[in-house]
Amino acid sequence: MPKVSVIIPAYNAENTIVETIESIQKQTLSDFEVLVIDDGSKDKTIELVKQITDPRVQVFAYPNGGVSVARNRGIEQAKGEFIAFIDNDDLWTEDKLELQIAALEQHPEASAVYSWTVNMMDDGESISFVQGTESTVEGNIYPDLLLGNFIGSGSNILVRREVIDVVGGYEPNLAFSDWDFCLRVAAKFQFVVVPKPQILYRKIAGSMSSKLDAMEKEGLRALERAYQTAPPELQHLKNRSLAFLHRYLADLCLAHDTDAKGLDAAQKNLWQAVKLYPQILQERYAQKLIIKLLIKRLLPGNLSNSVIQGLKKQISCPDPRVEPKS
After folding, report:
1. Which of 71, 129, 266, 317 could pair with 253 as two cysteines, CB 3.0-4.6 Å apart?
2. Strands 91-92 and 4-10
3. CATH assignment at residue 94
4. Which Pfam families does this chain map to (predicted)?
5. Helices 209-229 and 177-186 meet at what angle, rounded to 10?
6. How many domains in the chain?
7. Which of 59-63, 72-76, 199-203 is the least confident region?
């Protein structure tokens, strides 16, 4: 029986799947199985995986069901003592599994572990630290996780097998299923953190405003689902959670969009955040976003970008949510 089952949901991943698998093969901990769950790909994903001669790598083909269904199908196939997930276009540092397993073995009271994340652009070269994911919260992380998904993405978390037996798998009909899954785990189990960047999250360039409505709807669904089961003593956090979600959406628009539609969406979400949680105006990060919006409104594109670059290093987000991958 392998120590770790690594589950990769894959859909039309011919451009990245081999590199993702190679990052797993390079792990300093070698006792693992890799379960590639092909989710009805129409490209050469299956063919490329089958060309890999490593007996630890297996591929299973299913009709398209979405990333959450693919992860759940991987869980059904998994034989490992621990279960980890990675998306078909992300990468791990070579010590990711070793250090995460070591952290759990050093903390037997914990059943789940996370690390820090860096962004990797499409070129695979341009890398930036994901501000806010450098959390050091351990033990009962549930209240903190309700306020924002500092775990970041589905390529991060590693859990003991019994976690799945208790909380089940991923919610198939929820775009923010990563956050939802981590919340359900955190409600029942303790976490430990590896305070080191180990996940390279590949960001896809493109407009955010076109995706914003869907992201807002799914983010609100994820929070509503979470607060339906949250204990009474945490219900007072709900407006703050909602405000941080809208602040995050505003940040995405300001980072990706420069047209009037994107700025309107950013302004709408910032205003919603303030209405829900007026104290957000006291936070430096929210103040910086408001300044950024004003600069983009008042100055021409090139000039506004130059001014914003001077502020960029000072803007950090304590609760980023990585946008769901389709």
Report:
1. 266
2. unpaired
3. 3.90.550.10
4. Glyco_tranf_2_2
5. 20
6. 2
7. 199-203
